[in-house]
Amino acid sequence: MRLQCEVEVLSRLLPTCGLRGRGRAARALLSLGRAPGAAGAGIYLMVCTARDRGGARYKVQQNVERLFTRFVEEGKATVRLREPAANVINLKTFLSAVRLAHQGNDTGVLPLSPLVPAKNSDVEKPKTKMIITSRRDYPLAKSFPLSLEHLQTSYCKLARIDSRVLCLKKLRKLDLSHNHIKQLPATLGDLACLQELDLHDNHLEAFSGALCSSGLQKSLQLLDLSQNQIQALPMEFCQLRGLVQLRLDDNALQRLPCRIGQLSRLRFLSAARNKLPFLPSDFRRLSLENLDLFGNPFEQPNPLVPNIQLKIPLTLLECAARATVNHGIPYGCHLLPFHLCKDLEVAKTCRCGSACLSSFIQITLTMNLHHVAHTVVLVDNMGGTEAPVLCYFCSLHCYSQFLDRHLQSSGRQGPGSA
């Protein structure tokens, strides 16, 4: 039996001599077994470190004074030996095997290991960070260490994500910036610990909806998709509820997700230099610390020129859809056709709070971006901090009420404000 862990060996005789141990743990390989060529010999515990790969051996049978296992759930334990008077700390597992070896019971069934010197890989601390910034340094023949938590492979001219990267289940930060990646595999969503994903300066044309429905929706906190060729984000994008920072600069985005307000944890949003004519109605629900929408071709809003999609009388489908959303009636693909479920998920909301599906009146209003963000980058070279936002009405009555209030507040016809 072998175990890679952090080990500290302390002599209990030091305090009697007025001395103190160093108290510093070292990466080590613990082995529980018999000496080579000694079938009938006793069982030993061997500790191999980078400085002493040959290892120090400690007799186990009838030599364990006590096992301290109070903190074993935290991966910590202590073995106190009678001779020599030493404590081996931080064993983490295989305490039951040590106990059996001490008692001398059933030693034939113990998973013992040969007590041979350790290899370098056994006593080296697992590698958690790797940065590769050139194609010539990219590993082709050997795999990535499975212990990696931070991996950067930039300027490597990668056309796709290496399948070996998708096996790194401990990854928390993945930087694939400055490559030629065109498509993201759905298995990227299997990296359940991934918190930061940097894909800026690639050739992406889309962000898969499957990724938004994967384990990333809970773990992902930072997503950088800037300097790509993305025209639209999927409807499922707003399932990434853990996002705190989102960068979408320098793409070809023509719209933001209609349910972007569901990203309740989002604090930093940048979508500069895209092709956004207006912002979605749900944008008002955001609560940001920093917002950058500079360089978008925002339209001039005019609430007096509505886009009327209202059908009177309302169709039975529209009435049923509104009732389903307004009353919170459960639905799913086992009850309704798939396309109806999708339509209900993107139902529009009138200013009165009622839902509308395909029958509505749409206008654009001017919104001061300081209403949703503490710090706002100017949207143009004129020093503006306002942008047009969509607004929906479920009926002529709701639109008429808004129009009356708008004309009374402005005193003239012209652009409105949200």
TrEMBL record:
Q: Name all PIF1/LRR1 pleckstrin homology domain ranges.
A: 1-112
**Record keyword Transmembrane present:** no
Q: Does the keyword Repeat apply?
A: yes
For this UniProt record, give its keywords in alphabetical order, as a comma-separated list: Leucine-rich repeat, Nucleus, Repeat
- List the PROSITE patterns: LRR
- Could you name the Gene Ontology cellular component terms for this entry? cytoplasm
In its UniProt entry, what is this protein called? PIF1/LRR1 pleckstrin homology domain-containing protein
The record lists the organism as Chloebia gouldiae
